[in-house]
UniProtKB/TrEMBL annotation:
<keyword id="KW-1133">Transmembrane helix</keyword>
<dbReference type="Pfam" id="PF13593">
    <property type="entry name" value="SBF_like"/>
</dbReference>
<keyword id="KW-0812">Transmembrane</keyword>
<dbReference type="GO" id="GO:0005886">
    <property type="term" value="C:plasma membrane"/>
</dbReference>
<dbReference type="InterPro" id="IPR016833">
    <property type="entry name" value="Put_Na-Bile_cotransptr"/>
</dbReference>
<feature type="transmembrane region" description="Helical">
    <location>
        <begin position="208"/>
        <end position="230"/>
    </location>
</feature>
<feature type="transmembrane region" description="Helical">
    <location>
        <begin position="276"/>
        <end position="300"/>
    </location>
</feature>
<dbReference type="InterPro" id="IPR038770">
    <property type="entry name" value="Na+/solute_symporter_sf"/>
</dbReference>
<protein>
    <submittedName>
        <fullName>Uncharacterized protein</fullName>
    </submittedName>
</protein>
<feature type="transmembrane region" description="Helical">
    <location>
        <begin position="242"/>
        <end position="264"/>
    </location>
</feature>
<feature type="transmembrane region" description="Helical">
    <location>
        <begin position="162"/>
        <end position="185"/>
    </location>
</feature>
<feature type="transmembrane region" description="Helical">
    <location>
        <begin position="67"/>
        <end position="85"/>
    </location>
</feature>
<keyword id="KW-0472">Membrane</keyword>
<feature type="transmembrane region" description="Helical">
    <location>
        <begin position="97"/>
        <end position="123"/>
    </location>
</feature>
<feature type="transmembrane region" description="Helical">
    <location>
        <begin position="312"/>
        <end position="335"/>
    </location>
</feature>
<feature type="transmembrane region" description="Helical">
    <location>
        <begin position="129"/>
        <end position="150"/>
    </location>
</feature>
<comment type="similarity">
    <text>Belongs to the bile acid:sodium symporter (BASS) (TC 2.A.28) family.</text>
</comment>
Length: 410
């Protein structure tokens, strides 16, 4: 964009970009104004500045958002995750193998395959195929880190179990999620959206794994190494720089770049209101169904199987939530810069699911916290010198009473 002052009272606003951008937006970027007030009214009141920013911020735009925004934000998010994860405290949960196996199998296998079956049913409803593929990619993504630990902690659940499984899920997801997506998209139903960047599927898989390792795995481990070497300095830096707020800002920036590309390429023009409504309801239904199902499984009254209430909360959040960062990273890795006209539509199910899991999760936190408090209140206890001793069964009561009598006799 160039502002030319032809004389004292004459201004010209000239678009210096590609003609294709003008055609897509349907706006003529060459205008003349008699004075500065007219120019200000055009650029501010008509909101053309936001349009200019949107066009510049699309993938392949003038600021190259695929590098300056998308890639940098993804690397920053995983680097901050590495700095924030408390490794020493996670070691306490390593031996809880039964819980870890349940969460990972449920999140990375059961949820994707079940959602894939649902996607085949949605095709019969004539839903936009790009949205259906986006739902499949969303379901194949791994669980999120920050949301799980925060919601589990607020609900009085096992915070460290949630954090460990979130980290483990992100590491496994780098290898498992692409394989699942490759398998699902081999169905001829999705031929129009198949991955054709290379002729050999194995080459594609290797390239995607390499991209995920470079953008997710390495930044995470670098952050972990820095935290292990300088734990006190990292904790001080985390408070001063507000890591949580920076993470939220990076996610919003990433979503903004995705929508810039979608609007600039006209991707959303193919989405009908009916499709959008079905997508919103489907995403909400997927989250509610899978969070309820895994909670039911974790509390089955089977000897040596039923998990505690605190563990169940961690299992529920880790089993049903999906990471927006990994989902968008997978879309970028699969489709790169060659199919920008559909990447925005593919990202839409992931973005909507992210918003809905936070909203529904906030309600679940309130209900689960009350559920755990009721469980704590039901535990029998013995009061001695104003000290409550929680007991697991009546045998413990007999032992405590015996010990108390012996002490008093002495």
């Amino acid at each position: 964009m160039s502002i030319r002052n032809c004389d004292k009272n004459h201004f010209s606003l000239v678009w210096l970009g590609n003609e294709s951008d003008e055609d897509v937006l349907g706006i003529k970027f060459i205008n003349e104004f008699k004075n500065y007030d007219e120019f200000k009214e055009y650029t501010v009141d008509k909101s053309h500045c936001s349009i200019i920013l949107m066009v510049s911020s699309k993938t392949g735009g003038y600021i190259r958002s695929e590098w300056t925004v998308k890639l940098s934000c993804i690397i920053l998010l995983f680097f901050l995750s590495g700095l924030s994860v408390r490794t020493q405290q996670l070691l306490q949960e390593l031996l809880h193998i039964r819980l870890h196996v349940l969460v990972q199998i449920y999140s990375l296998i059961i949820v994707p395959f079940t959602t894939y079956g649902l996607a085949l049913l949605l095709i019969k409803l004539s839903l936009n195929k790009a949205l259906i593929v986006g739902i499949i990619i969303m379901a194949s993504s791994c669980t999120t880190i920050s949301s799980n630990s925060v919601m589990t902690k607020n609900a009085m659940g096992n915070e460290y179990a949630a954090l460990l499984n979130a980290v483990l899920g992100n590491l496994l997801g780098i290898f498992v999620s692409p394989a699942m997506i490759f398998y699902f998209l081999k169905n001829p139903v999705f031929d129009s959206l198949s991955i054709t960047n290379n002729t050999n599927g194995q080459v594609n898989y290797g390239r995607i794994i390499r991209n995920l390792i470079l953008t997710a795995l390495i930044p995470f481990f670098v952050g972990q190494i820095i935290r292990l070497l300088w734990p006190k300095q990292v904790m001080d830096l985390r408070q001063k720089l507000y890591f949580a707020e920076v993470t939220s800002l990076a996610i919003l920036t990433l979503v903004w770049a995705v929508f810039c590309t979608a609007f600039a390429t006209g991707s959303f023009q193919a989405i009908q209101k009916k499709d959008l409504l079905i997508l919103v309801l489907t995403d909400a239904g997927i989250y509610v169904f899978f969070s309820s199902l895994i909670m039911f499984i974790a509390r089955l009254p089977i000897p040596r199987w039923q998990f505690s209430r605190k563990d169940t909360v961690a299992i529920m959040f880790c089993g049903a939530t999906k990471a927006l960062t990994i989902g968008i990273t997978l879309i970028n890795a699969f489709y790169g810069n060659q199919n920008q006209d559909i990447t925005g539509v593919l990202s839409l199910p992931m973005i909507i699911y992210h918003v809905e899991q936070l909203a529904i999760g906030a309600i679940e936190v309130i209900l689960l916290k009350k559920w755990i408090e009721r469980g704590i209140n039901k535990q029998p206890s013995v009061q001695n010198d104003n000290i409550n001793i929680p007991l697991k069964n009546t045998d413990d009561l007999q032992v405590v009473e015996t010990e108390t009598i012996n002490v008093k006799c002495q």
